[in-house]
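### Sample
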Amino acid sequence: MNKKDLADLRKEFKLSSYMMPIKEIYSVYLKKDNGEIITKELNYFEMMDIEKRELYLENFKKVLTGPIDTKIFELDFKMNLGQDSEEVVAAGIDLDQSTRDVVRELNAGMAGEQRYGELEGTQTILYNALSSGESIVEYADKIVEKIARNYTYETDIVINFIKAEYFKGNKKRSKEAEESIDDYVQAIEFIVCSINKIDVPKKVLKFDYSEMTFKPNSALDVEVNLKSPLDGFMFPSISSEYIDVNKIIYYSSKAKQINVGFVENVLDCGIKPTAIEEKESFHAILNTVVGDKIKTDTMQEIYERINEKLELAEEEDDEEPTIDMKEITKVLEETGIEETEVVKSAFEEICGGDYEFKIKNIVPDFNSRSIKIENETTNITITPRELSSIRQVIDKSGKKCLLIELTEDVQINGFRLESEEFESI
C-alpha cells in the first residue's frame, strides 16, 4: 500500500462520502490495572448522531495518517493463510472481483479451514471477520483479549473497531472498453482498529446548565483521546492492483518507533526497519565501502543514479521501487568507486545478507533542501543537486574552509556580503 492508496482512502473518512459506507462501530473500554472490560458498545454508523460520527471518523482517519515507514508500516504476518493464498496475492487480485470473492477463492485453496482456525492468529481472526458476513463483535473481542494479555499502556484504553466497505475504481479501465460500472468499481471490505488512551481531566469548576449551578467536575468524567491513537491497524492491505490479505497496515503514534509488543504479540507480525533505520544501514554500507571520507561530487552522483530509478517509477506509477546489493554495487562502480568487492560482506554484516532498500528511504528528497552540512559552528541545508558545488578546502595558512559556489550574492540579516579574493582569507 503506497502513499497514494492511503491518501485516496483517507479522503473518504467524511460524513458526505458515498464511496465508503461504514457498517459497524464497536468500542471496548479496557482497564489498565487488571485488564477488566468495563463496557462494550456496538453501534450502526448511520444510527449515530452526527457529532459522534465525526469524532469516530477523525479517529480512524488518524490511523491512516503519517509518512510510510515512519508512522505507517505495511507488515507481513508471521504465518500466512497458506501457500494458495500467497500465490493469489502474488499474482495480484484483479479489482474486478469483490473482497468476498477473494475470500472464497482463498478458502477453496486452503487445506482445511479448521487447521488455521485452531491457531487463532490475528490474520485468521480478521480474515474470518470479513468472510463470515457476521457482526464484528465476536472477532473484535478476540483481538481485545490479545491486547489485554499483552498490555503495554500507561492508562486505561478504549479500543475502537470499524467494519466498512470501500468502493475503489480500477485505474486501468480503458475508456474504449465496453464495461459496466460494476467492472470499474471494486467493493472492498476492510477493518480498522484504533487504541486510544483515557485522559482524566484536571479538577475544574464547571457550570451545569441543567441545574443552573456551578459545581466541580467529577473524577468519573474521563475523556477518550480520539485525536492521538496509541496504536492502530487496518486489514487487509489495499493497493491499486490487488488486495493483500497476507499484510496489515500498522500505525504508530511515535514517529520512527514501533510498539514491538503490540506488533509481535497482538498483530502476529514481524518487525520491519523504519525509514531512519534503513537510511542508517545504507550509510553504514557506504561507509564500509568508501571509508569515512567522500567527495561531494561522488556523493551527488550516487544519489542521482539511485534517484533516477525512483523518478522513473513515479512517472510510470509503479510500485514503490527498491534497490538491492547488485544494483548498489553497479551504481558504485559507475561512480568510479573501485573496491566494490566489499559490498557483499558489508550487506552481510549490516543487513544479515542481501536486502532490498526502499529507495525513498535512503536518498534525500531532491525537491527540497534535504542535505545537511554541519559541524559545531556551521549548519547549512542544500538540495542534493547542489552537492557538487560544495568543497572543503585548506587555504594558504592551513585553515579548513567551506567553499560554496554561488550563482548570486548571499545575504545576512538583510546585508549582501562583500566578495573577497580567496587568497586574502
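The two ends are 54 Å apart (CA to CA). This sample (DUF4317 family protein) is used throughout the tutorial notebook.
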